[in-house]
Design goal:
Chain lengths: 357, 357, 357, 357
């Protein structure tokens, strides 16, 4: 049985490169030979034991690669095609998919919905920090990559870009909106780019790292605030003459950013939350207008599926957005443990690392 | 200067019937002679000093009456017409109004939005528990009442019905949805009726008072749960085979009902909040799927304006919904202090009281 | 090779009962033993040669039956379960499905969309006026039927009810809307029921057959107009004081009904079109306000998929709508040619016929 | 009584500069001293007698100016402020306004809606090709202009830009959409810019004038097609691999462009129509998929009101869009007849003319 290298979760604190069998290909699956992948903040949560996964699982949910083998029932693709798949791999046929909520796909045996049920790679099935990955429901999830784009150019599509853009889309940003984006890590930067794509005309981004605020400007921020220099809530209210913003995007996952996002929201505005929280959240009574402010709080899990990927690739291809500056470091799969070390400690101004076998 | 009787806030614990001048009519105003009005739960908050208003203010925001006098710039109405006006009286010309958020109207001198800014009667201007009330921006707010409907039949339109229905509408209920409504006071009952009007096919309502659950069935509930008998969260999850509901409406304003509404929500579902909270709220991490459940939390302040009133009167007129059972007690304006006493203590199975001068 | 009886298109004017092999079951398919089915107006178009299909094709797209055999890759169902499938059978994995437009499913080998591409039964693959039918993409399309409902109670779900309700939904009817429905055949009657479910408070239905207008009242019409007695356009404008309706539903497919629907529409209103047209359409300049009326014209093809079917079954089960009066005649499959004869000539007040093997 | 110069409709073929009294200022009005205005294609229709207005009416609906005098009931503005008002001046208090359809404002004495009822300047009341114009419902319609922007920079906001952007917005363009825009006159160019602001990633624009296609590229078109060189329908279908576009915008008002827009639409796509038609329209049966293509045809009248103007000014201010290249010619009000002559004959590559008193 042929074997491959894979980054495997062993126990909290340890993700190691090991080898395991190349998986068999079921009727609806596709086996992809990974050519480029990356590490996500969620993977670091897994590494630290903050998000539990099974021991022995291959980590990673951002695949770029080439179709090695197609399942017997898969039509519409050919072996050798270069493809990506989203971090979230909806089945296409679940109640959740058919009800407009594919990320919350409950699986074939349920009539209902399961929170985060659509997130399978590196969560409930083996992921893609490996030489090969099995893509389930391949007809729903594989998306061809045009020749003119490099692996790195589409590397953000599966997760970071899809999630960040969803923050703008779920917030239902309209032309002329004033938008604040709290935190300018990879997802926050993509949310900033997504807000610009959606028609926001004043985008105020907030972070504590000057280098990220610089990238933020290139992604579309009109005004950047370093929270070491100003109180972002007070400053945003000043900049908007006390009106507040139409949409505030939370892109970190803490009480502080959540609460700030709510405090700068105009009555009738929308808080679009992207962060993964690790504690209960508090909604302050005043900022919430006692429940009478016509506020909306919306959350989004990264949208997946081949059509989503096609659209995001279209954005890259059009030149409307350039996310190539996001890849700050490159590693071989053999050195992925070093890549985790750099990324987990956010050293050297890292935004995203590209991993190639 | 002619004077009138009015229920006036004196200090926490005291709303008294007193007399004050009949107000002058400005260019955009209409003076209405009140024929029927009622007391709202919010008025009880004012009475108890939980919601601050100016001393001497006339309380009440649910007017049915007859046009006594029109302002010089008001067109399209005639003196003597029977009308209602919403509890919320948007100007029609503010940025908030023109941006689709009239309840959060910021007033003429602001370019922006003000939380609850559209609520003026019995809050920032004199209300309608009186012989006369001045309706501001009359062209935006007066709605004629058809002869065939009695005062009591339209008495719920200005606030209770508009708010309750907004809970269903903001939740974007679709045909075939499963909906839970937490609390079956007047607003919760109207939310139940609104959920049925919106196409929900399984409506589960929750309260602790058997009489209210009976009325709830007549308003459209398919299943009623008395929280003295069952744990509503567990029971709703059982009834839905672990799936949860598409939309949960909160109609009380407590941490308990808010949290229960979130706990019964399917991934991708909407919590539509109507209650007036008096404390900070906690969002439990698990029920919120750590922010990854594609959940929406939406809040609604009672929609006002003459077009809203026209539509609600249309609902009553069509016979689709019968809210006349909501008026359980009747008082003269002279006896309004006794009415407050009954209503504030929720004695004798009271739902709503009708007050007539 | 076992054989079965099936109603087969031979040539324009001839659909005959013949026998053909029971089909093989592919990996994603399910073989259903039909227990009840019906004839649709579209089938009559096929019979008359107005809509071309391949010779030898089995006709029919409204199946109720029992799972006889499941494909090797199908999970989540068991043989022996009673099920329905929609008239439209989207794959679940096409670009159209993933883009929110499953009825226009372009098939596995296309990246795009195909008009009516989701309609396969009795159009591009064998249909269900037979002893057995093969359901493609079974995991996306099979929907269990609760024991408490009879075959006839769910017989309208696959097409008539799904289409009629879509007319109300695509029209985005809101609480308090005034709605006109032109033509009260089976689809128009379901559109009337769907308009009521969506919150319309004045529903005006139009037809030329008194019996249908009677059924229309039971489905939710508040006012019925017989076009032999009144000019529907003039009468609707009179009934609405010259305002027009918020939403007009066209449920026949002729220039006359299309144009009338446009003529009664208020500026800013929506014409929701359900009919299958057989000629070019003319939009009169005046009724269209020269293109400046903020009008919308929307068309809907019957939505399919198991989640849609589940919701419609939920409507039936809730008792909100009772469509059982729609089945006016019953035939054995052996007598289906007689059933076609009755239905094609609209004799004896026929609305829908139930066909059982 | 003081008098002013104004461009007045005398009879078909004749708009002349004459003088008339400066109007009195009603309670809700504002008198604006015009500093810059322009001529619209609609004005040319009026000139030619194709759109009837009263003899003696002042033409023009695109005002930039300074508040000369405020009505007695107008608050929130000060005399001397520089402002614009939209071409459409909704009242703010009509049923249409309160129902989300302000452009179709039916006036104070109607409960309903009137096609184009919100268009008053140069249609039902005196317009702004004059030294002064009276803005009705001033609190709803006046929008301050920031000092940093010139008159010419905001001159497109009242009509061209608001209309063109509405084409993109009503089409509900999403990130990643493929969009075609038929005709690249001033409105089509703004529609192209609006499509880009809305997230379209492939914008294909069509016109017959090379100069306009050049401007179109600067406004956001990715591909431009000159219909003298290629068949736009065939070429768009080729460019999209037979898929068609998600949204097609019609910006001329002819059967040819309307029909082409429909023919390039994917099933499930939206035809967003902006043109002012002068004949009945034909919908070809095939392109319309016999009514079964899930197509939408939406029309938009230029949105007005101060909040709309504020948002468009925000777009200009943000630098996202630069429409200053649209002003190709400049005239004094005294020479407006010459300006009409140039503009009506589309000489010298004219796009828009700036008129200053």
């Amino acid at each position: 049985m042929p074997r491959m290298k894979a980054a495997i979760f062993v126990e909290p604190g340890r993700i190691v490169l090991d080898d395991k069998p190349i998986p068999d290909v079921g009727a609806l699956d596709a086996l992809i030979r990974i050519t480029t992948t990356t590490i996500c903040g969620t993977d670091v949560h897994i590494l630290k034991g903050e998000y539990p996964v099974a021991k022995g699982l291959t980590i990673g949910h951002e695949p770029v690669g080439v179709i090695e083998k197609l399942g017997s029932a898969v039509q519409g693709f050919t072996e050798g095609q270069r493809v990506i798949a989203g971090a979230i791999t909806p089945s296409g046929h679940s109640a959740a998919c058919l009800c407009g909520c594919p990320s919350q796909d409950g699986g074939v045996n349920r009539t209902g919905f399961q929170a985060m049920g659509g997130w399978r790679f590196g969560n409930t099935i083996d992921g893609c920090q490996a030489e090969f990955v099995l893509v389930p429901d391949a007809m729903t999830n594989l998306c061809p990559v045009p020749d003119e784009l490099t692996d790195e150019q589409v590397l953000m599509c599966p997760d970071i870009m899809s999630t960040g853009f969803a923050g703008a889309e779920s917030g239902r940003i309209r032309i002329g909106d004033i938008v604040a984006v709290f935190a300018q890590g990879p997802i926050g930067l993509c949310a900033t780019a997504g807000a610009k794509m959606s028609g926001a005309t004043t985008i105020i981004s907030v972070d504590g790292i000057a280098g990220r605020l610089e990238v933020s400007r290139r992604c579309g921020a009109d005004i950047t605030l370093n929270f070491h220099d100003v109180d972002p809530v007070a400053e945003i209210m000043r900049l908007t003459d006390g009106r507040g913003v139409d949409v505030a995007i939370e892109a970190l996952g803490t009480q502080g950013t959540f609460e700030s996002a709510l405090r700068v929201l105009r009555p009738g505005g929308t808080l679009s939350s992207l962060g993964v929280y690790s504690t209960d959240l508090t909604i302050p009574l005043g900022a919430f207008a006692a429940g009478l402010g016509d506020h909306r709080i919306v959350t989004s899990l990264c949208p997946g599926g081949k059509e989503r990927m096609r659209r995001l690739i279209g954005v890259i291809r059009s030149g409307r957005v350039d996310l190539s500056a996001m890849v700050t470091h490159r590693y071989k799969l053999d050195d992925i443990e070093a890549a985790y070390d750099l990324f987990a400690h956010q050293r050297d101004g890292v935004l995203k690392v590209a991993i190639t076998p």
